[in-house]
Amino acid sequence: xxxxxxxxxxxxxxxxxxxxxxxxxxxxxxxxxxxxxxxxxxxxxxxxxxxxxxxxx
Length: 57
Prior knowledge:
Layout: E1 6-14, E2 26-36
C-alpha cells in the first residue's frame, strides 16, 4: 500500500458492537506488517488482483 515491499492488510467492519445487524458506521483499518512481498498477491483486492472477480492459481 505504501510501496515499501511489505504486506499491508486492509479490512473494514461496522462500528456498532451492540446492534451488529444495523449499519450506522464503518471503520477501515490497516495492518502494516514486516512480511516481505516476494511474488504477486493472488487476491489483492475486493474483486481480485485483476479486478475481474476471477481467481487464478
